[in-house]
Amino acid sequence: QVQLVESGGGLVQAGGSLRLSCAASGRTFKDYRAGWFRQASGKPREFVAHISWSGDSIYYSDSVKGRFTISRDNAKNTVDLQMNSLKPEDTAVYYCAAARYFGDHRREQGYDYWGQGTQVTVSS
Questions:
Q1: Which of 2, 3, 70, 91 has a beta carbon 3.0–4.6 Å from 49's, enabling a disulfide?
Q2: Is 54 exposed, middle or buried (0-12, 13-18, 19+ CB in 10 A)?
Q3: How confident is the model over 23-55, as pLDDT tens digits?
Q4: Whole-number pLDDT of residue 72
Q5: Residue 111 neighbours by CB distance under 10 Å
Q6: CA dist 34 to 46, 85, 87, Å?
């Protein structure tokens, strides 16, 4: 089992940047693929980005492609999400998720472990 804790959220103006970090503990993190999801108020949780166990395979949602970058450091047991050119529509609670085996990386059901979330608010 792995425990996930997100950090780095906050308030930023449109066009600004934030870097979210997800710290994993409990098991060897290199054995888990990881993803970021977000949930805006009143909306369902949506996929943002995914990174494979070794980091050699990465996927993004169309809404963040070219602006967000996911990365991982297995030595530090972390997965980061660099968010640039932020827009008000990026405002949401951002969640880190992990799974040990293959699954649909775009669906919540494709992950077994979740963090508690961190709030990102982008003002216009």
A1: 70
A2: exposed
A3: 999 878 899 999 999 999 999 999 999 999 999
A4: 97
A5: 23
A6: 14, 23, 24
